[in-house]
């Protein structure tokens, strides 16, 4: 719990700084914080998946392990952690695209700026495109990661826990097939729904931000 709180504090600090800088990074740090909380909520019911696994026949430990592996042959918590680590990459690249582009293209922008009638500088569309393009690429990368994570939850993980009971097939290594179930099924099911909700929210935010960036780029071309 202390590690979760420490991680949230580290996410909140740059978010507050982003508010002062008006660079729009707070939405991505907020979504990462939401995912971190969802991981903490989902880890509680799923951390005891092995002790919660039970069958209607007495089996030795070898057959029970085979039965468990055949029923849950899809990674769960490790996939959640990997998705969070993968989402950090495009968010980090967005931060670089926002700050690094200003430094990299500052001299080029000064050359490409044209005077307008009032004597104020006017930034050309080529300068704006050079800044928006890497940021949009990062948004699309994050969108692809979130949609992949959402598909993994809905298509791979959720069907494993949706049935109340399931037949355990060990492939002939044990005498016969048995009926098995998982204790706390509703809590585990709700944990997956929470993770799917956060992935959906992140995907919607990516689509909205991408559309806004395109609209701003289109307006800059018209000016």
From TrEMBL:
Entry superkingdom: Eukaryota
Transmembrane segments: 80-97, 132-154, 189-214
Coiled coil: none
Domain Connexin N-terminal: 21-215
UniProt xrefs under InterPro entries: Connexin_N (IPR013092), Connexin_N_sf (IPR038359)
Cleaved signal peptide residues: 1-17
Transmembrane found in the keyword field: yes
Keywords linked to the UniProt accession: Membrane, Signal, Transmembrane, Transmembrane helix
Name assigned to this protein: Uncharacterized protein LOC115458994
